[in-house]
């Protein structure tokens, strides 16, 4: 792992998280493995606070726990967004799942993502059989096709190129076969029953450097539109490596697969379990890229 990343995570742990954890454990008496929500602003927007780590070894050669060992971390762009998502969870909807993948974008739209099709197959295998499930890929994974799928389904998995536009955040987009699917495109649609989105794409949860106190990125945009729970990424993702995270995530998310339970409130726990489960397969800088947002 890069030395500069280790230094950053150690500094975040020492200067920020140690005092916070002390308050949570000793003052508020919060039990370990409880959920906590991080609401970063300004320069902290692009820092993986959830991955803060002391990188120390005890006398018995065991590792000192990092933040994700102690608590299950989620992010929220604003407190009001988190409150709104919780209120909307009171409405029960029948779940339907769509997996959208574009591994062969049009000319000039990025390199081929060779692991997308196998990722979609994994997702299909892990979704409860009782859930309505659709897969859209190849020539069908167009801007219009993806928008229609977002409107018609409550759960969505997106595997493709993602791009944050630092100059025009609302032009941040997912790369489809024909045209870009922009954040503005999605925001102009009515998505009344949205519940969960997994954004298996690069740069879907990174803030805008020009507006550090405003959260305008793809993952936050989906939350503002009504998705109660979103998994996004802080930086570039290797699609072959991401597949390991995706498989582990849905394995935990639907481990009672035969019961057909689809509960978006389990996403933070499932992601935490998944990143721990793939430690021998996925390097830390690729594990920490995935973050959970909202409930």
TrEMBL record:
Pfam families: CHAT. This is CHAT domain-containing protein. Residues 9-255 form the CHAT domain. It comes from Suillus placidus.
């Amino acid at each position: 792992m890069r030395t500069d990343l280790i230094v950053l995570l150690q500094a975040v742990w020492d200067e920020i998280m140690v005092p916070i954890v002390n308050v949570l454990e000793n003052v508020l008496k919060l039990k370990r493995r409880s959920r906590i929500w991080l609401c970063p602003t300004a320069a902290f927007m692009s820092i993986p606070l959830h991955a803060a780590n002391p990188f120390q070894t005890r006398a018995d050669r065991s590792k000192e726990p990092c933040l994700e060992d102690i608590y299950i971390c989620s992010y929220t762009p604003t407190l009001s967004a988190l409150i709104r998502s919780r209120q909307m969870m009171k409405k029960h909807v029948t779940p339907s799942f769509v997996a959208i993948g574009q591994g062969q974008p049009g000319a000039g739209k990025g390199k081929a993502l060779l692991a997308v099709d196998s990722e979609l197959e994994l997702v299909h295998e892990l979704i409860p059989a009782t859930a309505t499930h659709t897969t859209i890929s190849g020539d069908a994974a167009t801007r219009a096709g993806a928008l229609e799928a977002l409107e018609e389904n409550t759960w969505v998995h997106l595997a493709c190129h993602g791009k944050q536009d630092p100059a025009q955040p609302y032009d941040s987009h997912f790369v489809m076969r024909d045209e870009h699917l922009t954040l503005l495109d999605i925001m102009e649609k009515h998505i009344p029953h949205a519940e969960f989105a997994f954004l298996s794409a690069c740069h879907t949860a990174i803030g805008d450097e020009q507006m550090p106190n405003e959260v305008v990125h793809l993952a936050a945009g989906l939350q503002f539109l009504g998705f109660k729970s979103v998994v996004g990424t802080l930086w570039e993702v290797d699609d072959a490596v991401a597949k390991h995270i995706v498989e582990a995530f849905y394995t935990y998310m639907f481990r009672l697969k035969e019961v057909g339970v689809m509960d978006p409130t389990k996403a933070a726990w499932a992601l935490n379990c998944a990143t721990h489960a793939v430690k021998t397969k996925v390097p830390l800088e690729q594990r920490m890229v995935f973050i959970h947002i909202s409930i």
